[in-house]
C-alpha cells in the first residue's frame, strides 16, 4: 500500500497508508486531517484540495485541462500545484509527499 506524507500548514507531518485506487485527497479526508477541504467530494470542480506535490512524484498523470483551469483560480498556486483528488495511487506508486497550503476553503 502506498504511503502518503502530508505536511500540514501548521508544520505537522502525517504518514498515511492509502489504498490503491484512492486519491491523495481520500487519504486525508478519511483520516480527518485538516487543510484538504474537498467541498466537491473529489469531482474536480472546486480546488479546495489543492496541494503542492513534492518533486520526483512523476508517477501521476499530467493534469487535465479541467484541473489546470481550476488551479488558475486557486490561491498560492505554484508550478508543483495539483488537486489532490486527481492524484490516484496505483499498486506500483512510490511513496508520495505533499504539502497542504493554508489557502484551501
Task: Please give a handful of descriptors for the protein shown.
single chain, 105 residues, alpha+beta, Ubiquitin-like (UB roll), five-stranded mixed β-sheet, 2 helices, 5 strands, globular
Which SSEs are present, and which pair or pack?
Elements: E1 3-7, E2 13-17, H1 24-30, E3 50-53, H2 65-72, E4 81-83, E5 96-99
Parallel strand pairs: 1-5
Antiparallel strand pairs: 1-2, 3-4, 3-5
Domain 2Fe-2S ferredoxin-type: 2-104
Family: Belongs to the adrenodoxin/putidaredoxin family.
InterPro entries: 2Fe-2S_ferredoxin-like_sf, 2Fe-2S_ferredoxin-type, Adrenodoxin-like, Adrenodoxin_Fe-S_BS, Beta-grasp_dom_sf
Please sum up the structure shown.
With 105 residues, this protein is an alpha+beta fold. It has a single domain (3-99), classed as Ubiquitin-like (UB roll).
Query: CATH homologous superfamily name?
Result: Beta-grasp domain
The CATH class is identified as Alpha Beta
CATH structural fold name: Ubiquitin-like (UB roll)
Radius of gyration (CA) equals: 12 Å
Q: Give the proportion of residues in helices.
A: 10-25%
Mean pLDDT: 92
Shape: globular
Question: Structural class, from secondary structure content?
Answer: alpha+beta
Residue runs with pLDDT of under 50 for 5 or more positions:
none
CATH architecture: Roll
Percent strand: 15-25%
Largest sheet: 5 strands, mixed
Number of strands: 5
Helix and strand sequence: EEHEHEE
* Strand line-up in the sheet with most strands: 2-1-5-3-4
End-to-end Cα distance, whole Å, is 29 Å
Number of helical regions: 2
